[in-house]
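Rotation project, supervised by the postdoc (A.L.). Task for the rotation student: set up a whole-complex structure prediction and record inputs and outputs verbatim in this book. Inputs entered:
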Amino acid sequence: MSRNKPSKIEFITRIVVAQFSNAGRADSMNIFKFGGIYSKRASRHLLSSLLLILPLPAMAALGDNAASVLADQARMKGTLRSVDAHTYVMHEITAPTGAVVREYVSPAGAVFGVAWDGPFPPNLQQLLGPYYQQAQQAQQAAASAQQQRGRRAPVVIETPGLVMYQTGHVRSFHGQAYIPQLVPQGVQASEIH
Amino acid sequence: MLLAVASVIVMAACGGSGSGGGGGSMSTITSVAVTCSPSTIQYGQTSQCSATVMGTGSFSSTVTWTASAGSISASGLFTAPSGGNVSLLVIVTATSTQDTTKSGMANITVNPVQQANNVVPVVVDLGPDPQNAPTVDTPYVTITICVPGTNTCQTIDHVEVDTGSPGLRIVSSVLTIPLPKQNNLDECLVFLDGYVWGPVATADITVAGEKASSVPVQIMIPSTGSPPVPSSCSSQSMGPNGNEGGSVDTFGANALIGVGLFQQDCPACTTSPPPDAYYDCSGSSCNPTTVSLAQQVTNPVSLFAADNNGVLIQLPAVPDGGSATVNGSLIFGIGTQSNNALGSAMVYPTDNVGNFTTTFNGTSYPASFIDSGSNGLFFLDSKTTGIPACAKPVNTWYCPSTSPDNLTAVNQGSNGQSGPPTNFSIEDASNLLNTNNSAFSTLGGPNPGSFDWGLSFFFGKSVFTAIENKSTPGGAGPYWAY
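Outputs recorded:
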């Protein structure tokens, strides 16, 4: 689960490779990989060059734009790895605690899905952004509907505007959330994991 | 054999001789009698024996002590063998040294040591508030907690047994004794579908004949309580409404006893920066803090003097359609007593976070787990299984069109060894949940991407949960065996 933090030298090497890959092979599966803690400015530069220039919002979220990934990385004090899957780009942030958050960005530049994995759930309010309230309401509605027979089980939220799952137990949580309307054509929801 | 001067009582001297000393050649031994007190003891215990030598003349009262088992000292102190599990009849003999044809005998019964009772009854019923908040597939035990080192105690019923977490957590409104709190330390613990929040305190915990002293436990408080829930806690779940430990009805239990694979809940909390799990609430607000393992809320089983390497849950089979209530056992220890031997159970080691692999229809799901705190069989999704979800509002359960729907899956430990296929059935949950039954072996729902083998899995089985780093006859934990 946890990933070794790249050394500074390794980071420089990776940046060089990344820039080469970026310039030469746009369809490369692994466009760049670097240690976020050491390279906020550089990573911002790379992301910008990849995804066009976007303002950096204060807080990242599902449904937000691609640059919000960097805000999440900074907040999680994590390392960032990005993979171009052609129909989308997956940005994987690994926090020092071992928690991993993956954000899926469409060609249109929107975070259409997020997934997480680690000893604790992420800050869902930040990660889901405006959709957090929607998830809250959905879960509350389900809880009151089932009040007669409570369900102690994985989270399953399937609303027209938001799909969210979370499962696991103490020491191991994983989940995913996506906005069906924003998922690029040809991308399977199961790819968000 | 020990030769000694016995602590005899010379009861009588027959004949007309009134002389008390000398004349050894003139004296005779008429009998030797032996008594031992107590005459019934346990393995490892002692019994004091004494001989009464009777004779004529100035006879010698010296005897030789022998015992058919165990040992006996010069002074007649019998010590039983150190261990055994059958009752033993020991014959203690005192033989006159003056006349070895004269001896006396006594019996001592040696019984197996009265073992700490390691069994607590488990009941699956509608829970602590069946009228307002009936539960389903939830196993409960009764425990006693005390202010550490005192006789200020409280017995709590409907304590949920959870193999998916470590430690005792008590709904604050249930608590009637003043458990001492650990210097402004509060915990946020996220469960699957909600979180619990509240101070860490210490308690002596007694379950069946087992006791753990000064155990860190959590007192779960409502969102209106103090200290207030930090947003970094509630944000890991669905906000303030996700606080399920705030009341008995939202929690579905008076308390929860976590008897899972691990001793503590947050190894990552021992190093900086700490995750949003334990909080220092000594200032005006609560801030995440590092906490040593010893200070963390701890699986009480791991702190028992004996039977501390895991638990065995035994529940009888439940027929299709469910049962109103089910009675079974929570047994402490694995291979420590005659009632918790692994026997033919297969051991499934887990990875270091408590998962193993379940294979269904040829696809492996590596983040699967067994959890008595989940109240059904939660696995995959309708698309993968072909089992439709129920109609709203119970659409988070499965409602197979052919009920029961018989399925099979294979579990595999982290050592790569697969067990025999596990067969299970799913029935229409909308029908099941419309009954007043509380226990179902066929209740299921979706859990995309993995298997959560909840309580339904436990019926008709003996399921062992071995604690990390504790040795057992099946190897060290963490593992499940069934």
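Student's summary: The first strand of chain B starts at residue 2 and ends at 4.
Supervisor addendum: Chain B has three domains: 10-114, 139-303, 337-481.
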